[in-house]
Amino acid sequence: MKRIISKLDIKGPNLVKGVNLEGLRVLGEPDYFAKKYYEGFSDEIIYHDCVASLYDRKNFLNLIQKTASDVFIPISVGGGIKSLNDIEKVLSAGADKVFINSAAIKKPYFLIDASKRFGSANICLSIEVTKNSNNEFICLSNYGREVSKKKLVDWLPEAQQLGVGEIILTSISHEGMGNGFDLEMIELIYDKINVPFIIHGGAGNEEHIYEVLKYEKVSGVAISSLLHYSLIRDKSFKFEVKDEGNTQFLRFLKDTISQKKTSILSIKKFLKKKGIKIRL
Questions:
Q1: Among 42-51, 135-144, 159-168, which is the least confidently predicted range?
Q2: Which residues are catalytic, by number?
Q3: Which of 160, 224, 247, 267 has its CA 20 to 30 A from that of 39?
Q4: What are phi and psi of 240, to 5 degrees?
Q5: Per-residue buried b or exposed e for 162-176, using 16+ beta carbons within 10 Å of the residue's own CB
Q6: How far apart are CA 159 and CA 154, in angstroms?
Q7: The pTM is what?
Q8: Domain regions of the chain by residue span
């Protein structure tokens, strides 16, 4: 059964969204969006604290706790997870899984310790990828801010041997663009995938999602912009932003209400007609 996953990037108290992991714009209250996606047949929620090192973790844990009381599908959480204690706190707050990127790149054996302590099914690896000047796919950390020495073709199989139960792969160059997923990247590592595999970055319409879910080993797609902007353009959208951030973009989106919208349900109906096994 393939999964349609709603990915929400969090900065402080707000849901944000950028392009290529940059230029983050405030969109609204994350728990409001998460509940709407749950009610709209999302299979999972991903919360990514994209500036975790800069903000008080207590606020983020409160958000997880509040969402878990309203949303009864799996919640995956990542961003700034550096220790077993961090994982304990996030899972205790109500998350079902955590995903790790920066800490795993710096200390790969952290994945062994985490999977032994909490079970591999609860430990996911987040990989953020871009091409370097040699046309190689390399891995980045810290929400695309830091370039590592790890190549995608090497890091993906290594991490699986270290015990991760799932992998979320983001193409930074495709993220937020809405022009389709990076099929070249998927083809490059496809034979190396041995765990549940989620692709993120590029969904602009139902056909783009179908293109990647046709791959047998791709177990789900994580979608951000396509869902967020469609929800904001809906007449019932609750316009409310907490504390900070430039809301000009949010108001602009609300004014483009006549533009084409989609929903998780319509995406799933499209996929089912195409022969993709999906929960409806």
A1: 135-144
A2: 9, 128
A3: 247
A4: -155, 125
A5: bbbbbbbbbbbbbbb
A6: 9
A7: 0.89
A8: 3-273
